[in-house]
Amino acid sequence: MAVFSSQTQPSDTRTVPRHVAIIMDGNGRWARGRGRPRTMGHRAGVDAVRRTIEASVALGIEYLTLYGFSTENWKRPESEVSDLMGLLRLFLKRELATLHKNGIKIRIIGDRSRFADDIRALLDKAEEQTSGNTRLNLTIALSYGARAEIAHAMREIARKVAAGEISADAITEDIIEQNLSTVGIPDPDLLIRTSGEQRISNFLLWQSAYTEFIFEDVLWPDFDRAHLEKAIDNFAGRERRFGAVI
Predict the structure, then answer these.
(1) Is 30 part of any known ligand binding site?
(2) Which ranges form a coiled coil (predicted)?
(3) Whether pLDDT at 55 is above 70
């Protein structure tokens, strides 16, 4: 199934956030509420990903970051993790050509070392094939944890200090940001979490210092353009001061 028509163009005149990040939560509860296995919820969640990518392009969002699989998710039952890996393979194989055709640039953040070789190859291919695209910057967080990301950045900076490349006194917020996996990506303006839970679960901790949060009661498989538009309207009505007095 195609992600969206190649004719889709930004057509909305509302003020939209440049970067939207989403914690996609509620697949299991969606399935349980229908008396179905959790795997069916994850499959329905893939459809919501397609809808959200299409809606983001139509609304003129420049950056979309999706929390696909956390470092903590490896603790789930082996059968569920296996199914999630199968869905990831399927998504990358089936959707890459359409994403590329529609000008989507894919970037993966997180620890790839725990993925199977074929999945790592698919992730590399997705990034390489879409690297020149500019229509939408899609970042997918896989095997990602913000604390691990920050710890990795600290190790890289410590290595550079030990090698004499920089001095300890020269370490600034900019230096830290340059060593995060999101280097080159603007901080999220808006972070949406579905399912009604009100926490950010180790997602983009550094990057979300001044992000606006919206917690939606809708379960992720039911998330659609109307929910995204509602969140954007909420965001547009907020006054963002970034610590200053306006």
Answers:
(1) yes
(2) none
(3) yes
Q: Cβ distance 23 to 205 under 8 Å?
A: no
Residues 6 or more apart whose Cβ sits within 8 Å of residue 36: none
Question: Cα–Cα–Cα angle for 235, 237, 240, nearest 5°?
Answer: 70
32 is in an annotated binding site: no
> If you write DSSP's letter for every residue of 93-162 in order, what string do you get?
HHHHHHHHHTTEEEEEES-GGGS-HHHHHHHHHHHHHHTT--SEEEEEEEEE-HHHHHHHHHHHHHHHHH
pLDDT at residue 243 in the model: 63
**Is this prediction's pTM over 0.90?**
yes
> Tens digit of pLDDT for each residue in 101-129?
999 999 999 999 999 999 999 999 999 99
The C-alpha atoms of residue 134 and residue 130 are separated, in whole angstroms, by 9
The domains found in the chain, sorted by start residue, are 19-236 (3.40.1180.10)
Please list the active-site residues: 25, 73
